[in-house]
Amino acid sequence: MAEGSVAGYAAAGGGAAAGRGGASLGAIGRALHERGVPRPRGGSTWTHTTVARVLARAAI
């Protein structure tokens, strides 16, 4: 995946469950929004659902 992508962020440790010392899906979404990473379908804000779906697709 491209640098700066959701999967790249998760691979760097951002995708672990919050209870295991990683970031929550909501925190990943906020970080992506703050960094100006565009959503897959051009929406205005990353949500935990969007992050989860992108990560699920990347795992296939």
Q: What report would you give on this structure?
A:
With 60 residues, this protein is an all-alpha fold. It has one domain. The chain has helices at residues 6-14, 25-34, 48-58. Helix 2 (25-34) packs across helix 3 (48-58). The longest helix is centred in the last third of the chain and has 11 residues, at 48-58. The two termini are 13 Å apart.
Question: In a few lines, what is going on in this structure?
Answer:
The protein is mostly helical and 60 residues long. Helix content is 50%, strand content 0%.
Give the helix/strand layout:
Layout lengths: L5 H9 L10 H10 L13 H11 L2
Helix pairs in contact: 2-3
GO molecular function: DNA binding; DNA strand exchange activity
Protein name: Recombinase domain-containing protein
Pfam family, one: Recombinase
